[in-house]
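Lecture 7 notes: from sequence to structure.
We start with the chain below.
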Amino acid sequence: MYQTPKYSNIKAVIMQEYVNQTGTLPQRDSDADVRASGTAAVAEGLYSHQEYILKQLFIQTADEPYLYIHADELNLPRLGGSTATGQVWASGNTDGIILPVGSKLTDGFGRYWQTTTNATLSAKKQVAVPVQASNNGAAFNATGTLRWVSPVAGLQSIAGVDVISGGSDGESLERWRSRLWNKKKLGKSLSRTEDLRQAVLGVSGVANAYVYPLRRGAGSVDVAITAQGANGATLPSDSLLAQSEQVLKDTTAFWEDVRTFKPTIIAFNVTAKITGVNVNTGEISAIINDYLKAMIPAESYKAAVLYSLIMSVEGMIDVQLTPNVNVNPTVSMEQVGWIRPANVTVTS
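Predicted structure tokens for the same chain:
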């Protein structure tokens, strides 16, 4: 590969030419030396500019402004921000209370959500109510509980969040670059597995997609979707599922039966009994949680991998894990399991 010459090399070549023509080596700060220095500096600048231009020719190395040119060529614009959607659990003190569309909730930090349909509440059980954030942004992905703003009479003031996900601030540069590069490699969409996956990744709010061809028989393809959530990937809302499914139907020309679905959460408990010198149990707990949170749908829990991560901590002598064997989530026509952290206990 051609190596771009540096300033010192360029100047040395110029000085050598001077010696070849005159038979003498110019003194430092002489007229010839100054001219050689100036010429070498200009040449180095031209080489640098050529390197910069070359860098912009390829999606993998192009700077952000030039990625928009590649995007125009591939017809793959950068995704903007998306609105978090989902549902909360509401309950009333008596049966028959009507919760009107547009009822607002807040987390107490200046963020608001509102209901998108009317709901009839019950005193006996909680009712799922669809909601939508008031603004775009990842900050509106929520977990835990929210509080009703000016609740109607009889409505309990606290609402539990079932799922509120899919909100995003706009596509990150590297995620966009990855989609552009995949589109470049794939070329024309031919309803291949990766074509379908990339189509779903083009929906704002989708974190990742997992394609299962022929899962329900000939002509069928199912796509499991995860959404951008408050703490990483999480379950998608029904509206995000419907939006993604419509994109798939518009994209594919080969598959007759296309569906999107949510992975099935498997609440996973891990217990670790550690032996070590000056080892912080909180650090070990964080390692276990990070390992479990990074797992994708259908991925197996591997005890040996987690064991190695824990043993890499300075001062660790031994650790006894429960479970200490691999655990495979169910992957079938009915469901795709997704291991998620539940109770993590670390003792010494």
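Points to note: The mean pLDDT is 93. The chain has four domains: 7-56, 83-165, 187-261, 264-347.
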